[in-house]
Write a structure and sequence with these properties.
The complex is a heterodimer of chains A (about 220) and B (about 350). Chain A has six helices and ten strands, in the order E-E-E-H-E-E-H-E-H-H-H-E-H-E-E-E. Chain A is an alpha/beta fold. The longest helix of chain A is centred in the last third of the chain and has 17 residues. The chains are: A alpha/beta (about 220), B alpha+beta (about 350). The structure holds adenosine-5'-triphosphate and magnesium ion. Chain B: It comes from Limosilactobacillus panis DSM 6035.
Amino acid sequence: MSVIKLKNISKDFGKGISKVQVLDNVNFTADLGELSLILGPSGSGKSTFLTIAGGLQTPTTGTVTVEGETLEKLSTKERDQLRLNKIGFVLQSYNLLPYLTVTDQFALVRRIKKIGNMSQEELDNLLEELDISQLVNHYPDEMSGGQNQRVAIARALYPNPPIILADEPTAALDSNRVKIVGRLFKDMAVKHHKAIVVVTHDMRLRDFADHIYQLMDGKLTMER
Amino acid sequence: MFLALKEIKHEKVRYGLIIAMIVMISYLMFILMGMMLGLANENKAALTTWSAQTVFLNKNANDNLGQSVITKDQLADHSLNKHEALVGQTATVMTRSKKKAHKESVQFIGLDAGQYIAKDNMPLVAGRHAKNKHELVADESLKVKGYQLGDKVKLNSTAENYRLVGFAKDSQLNVAPVVYGRLSTWRELRGAAPQVVASGIISNQREGASRFKELAHYPIAKFIQKLPGYAAENSTFMFMIGFLMVISLVIIAVFLYILTMQKMPNYAVLRAQGISARHLIGATIDQAVILTITGICGGLVLTLLTAWLMPMTVPLVLEWPLIGLISIILILLGGIGALLPVRMIMKVDPVRALNS
Ligand SMILES: Nc1ncnc2c1ncn2[C@@H]1O[C@H](COP(=O)(O)OP(=O)(O)OP(=O)(O)O)[C@@H](O)[C@H]1O
Ligand SMILES: [Mg+2]
């Protein structure tokens, strides 16, 4: 079943001669249980694609549907709720609050979304798997870029959303860790029945993907 | 509260500075308020002790008891009732004769020993009431300054010797200690003509202007407002306190604005993660309130320490209801100061989170 569906999406920035079309009639669906990989060079519109899919910005034309709900019909508040409950974002930067320790990053989630989160045991296992369980009392500025990225991945998975949207989640990771994260995403998709969409230019993730797309000149083409 | 507290805890220096600023501002406000009330008290304490409700002066006295004289003629057809007392006031220099000669500016108050103030409204902290013209009772502040019962003193440059036999409670007028004596002494100090009886009449009842037609009539509140310098001092203090409130509002608003601006990328991420703008606004207002409350507590501690440890020329009068009121206004202003960043938070664009 497709939980997230983009239909005839186009996105322009600017007007007149300075107008750029970043996305050109893009169609995309993601199913539960699958890991989709969208590859494209820098500036090709990967982040734009992901923010539109997650309801952070509206497309110029076209519709986005998440679990059967058309995003453009939702109020700001309903869209907040949808993101909170249905979508885990792993963002390209500034993922973590600088003044919260790793433990408190999760505590903050618990304060806002009170039910349906991972159990403490599941969280401990996740941190173990990502090799960050020794960092729970660290602040973001006391960790490396790769460690921050892995905490951000755990932060996105913790509320148990059916959909994960990840923007360059492996940019700061070495090949070994890329494999761990790739396998984790694959496991999450298969075992926990989630739809995982990763936009990246990291070819090392190809091996784990069920579907691979190329984003180029505003066009999205399916490779497999 | 969670976000607010965690952030303050992590950014101790930053928030410490803001709190320090609020501590200093609220301290200054409390001290100014204390000084204002202290000064006001020194202006009028004696009137309160006398339970004065109505004052009658000469019509040409320019509202000033010390400059007023009333004559036998003006009283001709009236005799005073038991709620009324003749009072003669004059600024006087009192000189202690023995030990180190010591000069003191005082307000001499001449009374009739048989009238209500001398009989009932002159509570003493030490000694006794005067039995004759050569005995004086002085305000307790002179006791603190080292005067003792039995001290021999002279008034102005008259040759006469007087003896201090008692110290009176809360007896200050026009920011000077009161020294109580007889009306006849007042007449001598004043060099007044024989038909002059006193400066004015004080009553502990509300009386109408018709009571003494030849005299100017003042309800006590009006009389106090007309005390030399009283209204001007008060409005100066009020102006300073009011302006400090505006300054604290601006400081809180500016600091929170700058801090919020720096946190915009973080807030964008939180918005992207589905955390509502309301929650973030709540955190900012919580923070403003925590900062002001902490600052006010610090200011209070400093104020109490000051009142307790520091000898002041003007004693601080700390009135808790007023301090409470100032504190509440400060906290409200802190909340208002947080409204400026609130507008920014409402406009946070989560897309920014991904594009930086
Ligand atoms: N708000 C905006 N206003 C104008 N142009 C924008 C805006 N957001 C993105 N763009 C443009 O859209 C294009 C795609 O940007 P996007 O961030 O989606 O690229 P990307 O594939 O994520 O790049 P990278 O790999 O570097 O993150 C870029 O040319 C960018 O300049
Ligand atoms: Mg990008």
